[in-house]
Design a protein that fits this description.
By secondary structure, this protein is mainly α. The protein is built from four helices and no strands. Helices cover about 75% and strands about 0% of the residues.
Amino acid sequence: MESLHGVIRQLEAWWSYSLRCAQSPGCDSTWTWVTIGAVVAALIGLAVLAKMYFASGAERPRVAEGARVADAQTMSQYRVDSDKFYAGSDQADTEQRIREALAQRKAGNLP
């Protein structure tokens, strides 16, 4: 809380200085620097806003791609039944084929 009071005191001191300086022609450089600072801050703000806008623009194709995907009901009609992939082979057949492949490899017939 003490640092907040310090910041407020500094802002008050700067405000009173700027009011006195506005009436004196010797402080023209101060107002020049204040103007330059305001312009730089505005340019940085515009750059940040532009990046945010273009980032959301890059998001648009991804959202459009997601909209092209079919709804859940249509997707469920075309869902793959993975049990059908292994219907033709059983465990013993697979073990036998592995043993034969290892035997051929040991014999030097396979790479």
